[in-house]
Amino acid sequence: MQLWLIPIFPLLGAALNGFTGRRTSQGIQSAIAVGSVLLSFLWVLNILLNSMPAPGAEIRESYFTWISSGNFSLSVDLVVDRLTAVMLLVVTGIGTLIHIYATSYMSHEGGFYRFFTYLNLFMFFMLVLVMSGNFLLLFVGWEGVGLCSYLLIGFYFLKKSASDAGKKAFIVNRIGDFGVLLAMLLLINTFGSLDFKTIADKVKTMPVELSAGILTAICLLLLLGAAGKSAQIPLYTWLPDAMEGPTPVSALIHAATMVTAGVYLCCRASALFEHAPIAQDTVAYIGLATAFFAATIGLVQNDIKKVYAYSTVSQLGFMFLAVGSGAYAAAIFHVVTHAFFKALLFLGSGSVIHALEGEQDMRHMGGLRGKLPITFFTLLMGALAIAGFPFFSGWYSKEAILSAAHAHSPWMFWVAALTAMMTAFYVFRTIWLTFFGEYKGHAHPHESPAAMWIPLAVLAVLSVVGGFLFNVPHFLEGVLPAHAHGHDMTLEIIGSSAGLLGIALSYLFYVASPGLADSFAESFSGLYNLVYNKYFVDEVYDAAVVHPLERTSRGFLWKFLDQNVIDEGMVHGASSGALGLGSLLRLLQGGVVRNYATWVVLGAVFIFSAFSLLGGAR
Amino acid sequence: MPWLTALLALPFFGLIVLLAIPGQARNLVRLWANAVLLAGLGLALPLWQAFDRSAGSYQFVDRMPWIPTLGAQFLLGVDGISLLLVLLTSLLGPIAALASWNAIEDRTKEFYAMLLLLQFGMLGLFLSLDLLLFFVFFEVVLVPMYFLIGIWGGERRLYAAIKFFLYTLAGSVVLLLGIIALYWQGGLQLAQPTFEIAELLKLRMPLDVQRWLFWAFFVGFAIKVPMVPFHTWLPDAHTEAPTAGSVLLAGVLLKMGTYGFVRLSLPLFPEAAQEAAPILAVLSIVAILYGALISLMQQDWKRLVAYSSVSHMGFCTLGLAAMNSNGIAGSVLQQVNHGISTSLLFLLVGFIYERRHTRQIADFGGLAVVMPRFAFVFAVAVFSSAGLPLLNGFIGEFTILQGAFIVSRTWAAFAVFGIVLGAAYLLWLYQRTMLGDLRNEANRGLADLSPREWATVLPLLALALAIGVYPKPWFAVLERPVLEIVGRFGR
Questions:
Q1: Do residues A246 and A277 share a domain?
Q2: B286 touching chain A per CB within 8 A
Q3: Same domain (yes/no): A558, A452
């Protein structure tokens, strides 16, 4: 089926723009960038329409042996099964739309071709990630998307905050990679393979008493990696900072695709997680905690992209909750719908920012409904979808997650429902603050060009009908482990009302009686400040990890141990010792022949005894 | 003339001819030295084709009597391990010479004479199959490197050169004692005393003798690698050396230590080596973390790269300490990888130093604006050094980790943590030098890479990518010799 064509198109695009971009026009660069991703999308469609793999089956192509050392060997395999099919459609489909949008959004920025080189390169690695047949090749994609994320967050590299954010993202992800690398080493030792299918088969026949400990360790390590990539507690701090990147990057990488790689990894390793209940529970707790805390932070942020960033962290928490509850298909379902509505929210906010000449603070927006009608309407659809408004796309996937959480443990359902309410609240807060009331800025807002609003419109349609149209859990039946639990009407009603209540509350706070929010913030100023400052987690990390590490490295290891103890003490000590010894020995060479003779004899005796000792040792 | 002898003789012959060229004809001197080293590369490359991967023993063996009364021979040959290092040396030699084209205006002739002598010594060391010959080349290398640092180095060149010389000399004295003692042992067991390594491998020595010899060899090689705590000569020597010196020091000379372990210490004294493995592993892990943490804090661009070598060589010795096929094969490949990526980093610092005559990181920032091509190459070098998949460093590190993991999960876990730190100091260096605003006006007029500079980095970039994408051929040459070494353990 020539699966390799799917990732190779964007790689060629990146190479073409990278090497010729200096000499070509923006039009050609755009055509190459969009065209290469579009070709991938079409090739994906071609493959899936002609030979969609049955549930549990896969199309596998093996290209060459990558690493073989000792008795371990690993080949470069690309695989398409139904899970990959879903991811491929999301990555190439949404990817194409965002590429189109970006050709217009970035047209006034410097480094146009550099941007699209990185973006196409990102597509290549992301496609390798989702198509890989084994953990190591997945890790190649995993690191590659991290690299592109680093490059694109720091795209405006003249700004220190941007290059800081890029560096932070890469290093925090590397902490996660620590987990993935160790997990892979454990997998090799346990199963002698890194191939997904081989491992899944072997797990089934593994006796429980042998497997429980090791599988828990593997899954917890994978979770560390997933938490890094998908911005979960305790490694989520890089994602809000990553908003320093251009908005299309936020939409594509930090909302729709790359950050869901952690969820994808857990689903790929579902056979392992199913046999490691402790690790699975940990996934659920981490997901729920992340969903909740990120949502609280999202309630009070003033930068529109920051709100959506914390929202992404929170929504990813929902996906982890689903994985932890054993509802893998629901997690992937939410990956899909989230890709629709969160890409839409980011691109829409980009359209607003574009119209306001770079303004991101919602306190300087307002009343844009009339000036940006298309942006307003599409963004509203996205907001309704994420708020879980009945029959919008987000509603389907969120209900699936909530009911899975309830089956896991009812209290989790209630926390998740509360979080869903907060989600609706903060998303509609952005809608009210941006599009309603009076305009409070000084720019001259204008609607964005077609290249920007057409992708918005497509995403809006998908956000509305995507959940109804694409029944992902049904499509994935028999692909991922599933726990049967029936529909519970009561839960659905509670879940839906949580979203509606959130919308209503934010209307009350920001439209009906606009002073309410401020007076609330004043009466609970301690709590407000805590949340507004993101619970001071960055500061705590700096004080607890970064600064001590720097101090120890500089003060103790380098200045004291390396320079004083080893170099000054031992090395220079030895040399001044040698000098001292030399001046002592000089006394021996006084020119008196009789003394020389004595030394000759003593020396000879010493040498002979040394040799006989050595010889005697055998 | 036999192949390997010709390969070895070429730089020496070049040196003799060079001495006949008048010193004022600087360009002729440069041209000649570059041509000789390039011809050496041309002579070495076909070895890769001709090498028989399925044959176990040494290949292309040249044998001539040297000091018959002692049983020392002029004996050259390669197996997969030395083949890779010979090729690396043959590549880095001409690159170092080309990189120095404009940098050396003072005593140009002497400089290139030293480079040729160095090349002769380095090749000789990797080609020798006779222990005494090995030791002679081990010492030969010292002299030109001492002068390279001491004459053409930076401000503290004399201090650095003497420190380098004394440190290594101290190590080689102990190594020599070990070699003599081993020869003595051979005299007791073998029909006639010999320095031939293949013959010495037949010796069966009790553990306590092995132990003495292992640690004697250890001192010689550990200083060369260098392993913590014998490393403090390295930051000074690397930082003060001229670019060519740093490139060859990091790219080739450090490998003489690890090569010594692989070729001699492990196979000659297998039981003692196995006994010492935990100590080697702990020293390696300390080097990985310690080197990385200290790199994190460096203010001097070149010193940072130097300390990063301590960390990266820690991976190489960790692989050796694992003493299984993954560990050793990974270690040898990582030695090549380190030669590629660290040479790149040193070349790039050198280019900057030639332009700005400072290496303080604080003097830079925003260079990507004026030197985009330089920034691109530097990025590849940084990511290759940080072990990003699809570039060379990852393959070596991963294989080493695999080997270490089989022996001890704790070792592997600590080493993986070193990878996290590696990303931190390298990216921070990149950010502070390349990204941000161009704050320092003195950097505004900097020229981007010249064609000559491109020529020095391009082969290394291509290799970094080639090894990262398709490492199989490199492992293929290592398979047999590594199995032979591993086969000696646990008898």
A1: yes
A2: no
A3: no
Six token digits for residue B132: 């005494």
Task: Evaluate whether residue B181 is within a structural domain.
Answer: no
pLDDT at A168 over 90: no
Helix (H) or strand (E) holding A286: helix A277-298
Number of folded domains that form chain A: 2
Residue the block writes with tokens 């596998």: A60
pTM of the model: 0.88
B-chain residues within 8 Å CB-CB of A228? none
Give the pLDDT of residue A618.
43
Percent over 70 (pLDDT), chain A = 96
Segment A37-65 mean pLDDT = 89
User: Does residue A550 sit at the B interface (CB-CB below 8 Å)?
Assistant: yes
Task: Give burial (CB, 10 Å; 0-12/13-18/19+) of A599.
Answer: exposed
All residue ranges of chain B with pLDDT < 50 are: 491
pLDDT band at A119 (very low <50, low <70, confident <90, very high): very high
Q: B263 CB near a chain A CB, below 8 Å?
A: no
Same domain, A210 and A341: yes
Q: Please check whether residues A355 and A475 belong to one and the same domain.
A: yes
pLDDT digits (tens, 9 = 90+) for A569-584: 677 777 777 777 777 7
Say if the Cβ atoms of B423 and A171 lie within 8 Å.
Answer: yes
Q: Minimal Cα–Cα distance from B298 to chain A, Å?
A: 8
Domain co-membership, A189 together with A219 = yes
For residue A35, what are the domain limits? 5-532
Q: What is the pLDDT of residue A588?
A: 65
Contact yes or no for A414/A491 (Cβ under 8 A): no
Q: Which residues contact A526 (CB under 8 A, 6 or more apart)?
A: none
Separation CA A313–CA A310 (nearest Å): 5
Is the same domain home to A427 and A312? Answer: yes
A220 at interface of B, judged by CB pairs closer than 8 A: no
Per-residue pLDDT of B242-258, as tens digits, reads 999 999 999 999 999 99
| Tally of structural domains, chain B | 1
Compute how many other C-beta atoms are within 10 angstroms of the C-beta atom of residue A547. Answer: 11
C-alpha distances out from residue A564 to A74, A567, A578, B219, B311, Å: 47, 6, 19, 22, 20
Task: Name the one residue in this structure whose structure tokens are 């591993």.
Answer: B486
Chain centroid, CA A328 distance in Å: 18
Cross-chain CB nearest to A143 (options B366, B389, B402): B389
Same domain, A558 and A520: no
Please write down the HEC assignment for all residues of B51-92: CCCCCCCCEEEEEEEEEHHHCEEEEEEECHHHHHHHHHHHHH
Dist. CA A294–CA A297, nearest whole Å: 5
